[in-house]
Amino acid sequence: MPDISVFEWANIPLDDDGEPLNKIQIAPDWMIEILSPAQSPFLIIDKIGFALKHGTKLGWLIVPKERMVLTFREDNFNSFQGVDLLPMLDIFSDWQMSVQNVFDLLKF
Predict the structure, then answer these.
(1) In 1-108, which ranges are continuous DSSP H helix?
(2) Cβ neighbour number for residue 59 with a 10 Å cutoff
(3) pLDDT digits (tens, 9 = 90+) for 37-58
(4) What percent of the chain shows pLDDT beyond 90?
(5) Shortest CA distance to 4 belongs to which of 38, 41, 48?
(6) Would you give the DSSP letter of residue 61?
C-alpha cells in the first residue's frame, strides 16, 4: 500500500450498497511515496514500477533529504526540484503544483 493513493471517482471500488470498499485490491491511479531514511529507494522504485504494470498511471517518490520529487509514468521517469511543476493526472489538468508547494505542505 502506498503512503498516499489517489483514485479517479469512476475507479473507486464500491460494495453492493454503493459504499467504498474497506479493502481495495486494485492499483491506484496515482500513488505517492515519501522516502524515509530507513527505506531503500530501490525497493520503493520497484514498488512503483509494479503498480505501473498493473494500472497505475502516475507515481511520485518524494525524497525529503534532497527536496526532490521523482515521477514515474508507464513510458518515462523524471526528477523535479524547486519551482519545477509536477506532472498530474489528466483529470487535474487545470491544477498545478511545484516541488516547493509539496514541501511547503509537509511543514508543521
Answers:
(1) 41-53, 99-105
(2) 25
(3) 999 999 999 999 999 999 999 9
(4) 78
(5) 48
(6) E
